[in-house]
Design brief:
Number of strands: 2
Distance between the termini: 38 Å
Strand content: under 5%
Shape: elongated
Strand order of the largest sheet: 1-2
Length: 136
Amino acid sequence: EGAIFAAAIVPRVYHCSNADGDTIMNHMKIGASSTSFAAVKAAFEKNYACMNITCQEVGGIWNAAENKYYAGADPCGQLADGTGVSTSRPAIAGYQPGSKVTDHNALDLDQKAIELALGRLDYATVSKIYSEGGNS
């Protein structure tokens, strides 16, 4: 199963990082000389932002019997008991965002463009930005 999954996902990882794609394939391919869950997990996590996914979306491997994640299989940025902060997004001025703030920024830019267009009484532009988005 792991080899088939790797063959399917590695091209997407390669788009972000050839080295991380190699790490994943080398540890998951049929006949791999060594395997390291930690190395593969780290290679994926380094590319989440590039692949436009988050730690929360990927999740971890939960041990229901112990009510916690398996050691080393927790979502990035979380402790084994499920607490903690996601670290899948780059820090901005020392702040670790909990969401994709560029989406919020795009909405702010659209709001500013709408306000400018309203000031010019350009209702066609306002309608277009509102219905189609300008930056968002």
